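Exercise 7.
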Amino acid sequence: MSRFAARATTSERMDAEPVGFDEFAHCLRDLERLNDWSLAGRPTLAWLRRIVPADRPVSLVDVGTGAGDMLRRIDRWARRAGQRIAMTGIDRNPLAARAAAQCTPADMPIRFETGDALALGARSVDLIVSSLFAHHLTDEELPAFLGWMDRTARIGWFINDLHRHFVPYWFLRGLGRIAPLDPMVVHDGPVSVSRAFVRADWDRLIAQAGLDPESVEIRWYAPFRWGVGTRPGRTPSHA
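Solution. The predicted structure, written as tokens, is:
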């Protein structure tokens, strides 16, 4: 059987190994560089352009925010587009909020919290996004995550994550040999791809979460990304 036939259960070092703040922050900086090279923010920004109302300010929560680079990209886009978005980044790792705050200019309307988003209850929020977070969850955890987003986001939710495929896997394996990247990033990059998704995974997970498949849009983005979220023009099931 191909190594890509099913999601791997191998742990990423970032999830499994305790590290100090300096090592963690260095890893996140290299992840941000890799995300910039791979156009990681493009699916999320494309979805926001289609769904954010132009006539009022909105609130947005980013789950698994890491160093907050996705939120900084959103803020730069929002300023150019004349959108008003108050943003919160949530991450379970207590080092993430500190690292994110160090990287984020004080004039950006972004705050960072430590915690499990699903344990925070149905806070009032318009939009929920996650970028490269879903593959850290197991198949048992993902339906609950999808259901929580759908119940909690008034306007919509969006997941931006990797496509499980041999091309990005071997590309990252090769890049790790030649690029000056943090050793944790070198290890975790290919593992992330092996833990990621194909289209059939998303169809199955959406069904297990009890969501209306007509309300959820699944799109493939180059290079090897899935964008899964509320279809513009429709509302989450709780509304």
